Amino acid sequence: MNRQQLIEQIRLKKSYLCVGLDTDIEKIPQHLLSEKDPVFAFNKAIIDATRDHCVSYKINTAFYEALGLKGWEAMEKTVHYIGKDHFTIADAKRGDIGNTSDQYAKAFFSALPFDSVTVAPYMGEDSVKPFLQYEGKWAIVLGLTSNKGAADFELQQAGGELLYEKVLKTVSGWGSPDNLMFVVGATQADEFINIRKHTPDHFYLVPGVGAQGGSLKEISEKAMNQDVGILVNASRAVIYASSKEDFAEAAKAVAKGYQEEMAGYLGKK
Amino acid sequence: MNRQQLIEQIRLKKSYLCVGLDTDIEKIPQHLLSEKDPVFAFNKAIIDATRDHCVSYKINTAFYEALGLKGWEAMEKTVHYIGKDHFTIADAKRGDIGNTSDQYAKAFFSALPFDSVTVAPYMGEDSVKPFLQYEGKWAIVLGLTSNKGAADFELQQAGGELLYEKVLKTVSGWGSPDNLMFVVGATQADEFINIRKHTPDHFYLVPGVGAQGGSLKEISEKAMNQDVGILVNASRAVIYASSKEDFAEAAKAVAKGYQEEMAGYLGKK
């Protein structure tokens, strides 16, 4: 999915919601455990219930890898089931020397049909560039993350600026707003105006709303640009809205709630 | 495998060689492509041929993920085939917020029997700590990598020191030399004495010998400590020593050559 198509989907649905499929087999409703593939059964129900209210799904690869082969299979089935109308994100935080990042890009863009992969910037240009070589595909590079550990390096001084600022400025030169996004945590609202200054035209993937405590209102007010420019992810708050048989309806209600709130902020733009 | 067992293996075999199984289906000998699982067949032959000359195997997960389900299965079979006498490394460069790193740790330490995982430090403490919670298992955190991109951030100023130095100093406080190693590229020999000063007791995983051009002699002279303290990885130089039917013998000869050179450096300690 390219930038224009993504913006169209956002305008059409009045939503910039990304639903995070951090599907943990220990947290899904008990009655699904008798299914042949409980993780996929859960994802399928969540996708069916939420697809009208979101424009994107983010698959957190860790939760699938933790189940070994069966997990990888559930991930494969899930991304195919989502289809082409939603922007798909492999939240995989990959990145290695060039010849190895080539293989990761192949894994997610060729063996699997993801639109994008999250990428860690620490190893520099040759670790990121292979993800920028596929037509219509995206690298989503870590900028300022939502977790406590962001203070350890990302928010440290790095030659007259903060490290995450250096990352935004440097990495944005390696691609364009057509194939490069950044991860910016919803819990980092104080830095949002500064972040938008460095990267005015890029989309941000914003996790941290819901379970992690970030405010949708604050992000939307401070980080939106003329093309909307943000995808706000909620994972646990949506998919675990209920632990009972009504889990899909409950997820739908939460996703719909976010969408309606988003429609309000979009109306002001 | 714990630190004491690793040091014993190194002393016993007079080798601190790690063989990197970056197995690319496009580069393995043609005659293996008729096997049911060509990647595993290749790895099995390489392991049989090199196991006496190395103390460790490093599986570069990217090359397996690029093949999808079949690749993950080949990785699983390979790590089981290696067994308990070699130190196994999942070269996966993982790292995410705490609840997600928990899942990655589970993937490699519980669903799979790896001794260690390589971890990217950018997201800070809660992204690394989950890998340090398993008895006898290790996190191998990126310090100064072997690639050109190391200059983009790792070698940049970060508050009066270089970023990779800040990483070594900060991260070494999160674990101990018993559960934490660092990745230090063989191509970075100029920095080796400085690196050893910051982290005198830790083991380093040193990639970059062979195809990437690092010197085994230089690393060994500058980075070894009283417990040896280094695992030197060679991937392409060993596993692709020949592209013909004699690939395993050729790999053995190269591994043996490294081992004999290493025996010489160990003799001087």
From TrEMBL, chains A, B:
Pathway the protein acts in: Pyrimidine metabolism; UMP biosynthesis via de novo pathway; UMP from orotate: step 2/2
Superkingdom of source: Bacteria
CDD domains: OMP_decarboxylase_like
Record bears the keyword Membrane: no
Domain Orotidine 5'-phosphate decarboxylase: 16-251
Organism per entry: Terrimonas ginsenosidimutans
Single annotated GO MF: orotidine-5'-phosphate decarboxylase activity
Listed SMART domains: OMPdecase
Record-stated family: Belongs to the OMP decarboxylase family. Type 2 subfamily.
EC number: 4.1.1.23
Name of the gene this protein is made from: pyrF
InterPro entries for this protein: Aldolase_TIM (IPR013785), OMPdecase_type-2 (IPR011995), OMPdeCOase_dom (IPR001754), RibuloseP-bd_barrel (IPR011060)
This protein's UniProt keywords: Decarboxylase, Lyase, Pyrimidine biosynthesis
Name of the protein: Orotidine-5'-phosphate decarboxylase
Pfam families: OMPdecase
Catalytic activity reported: orotidine 5'-phosphate + H(+) = UMP + CO2
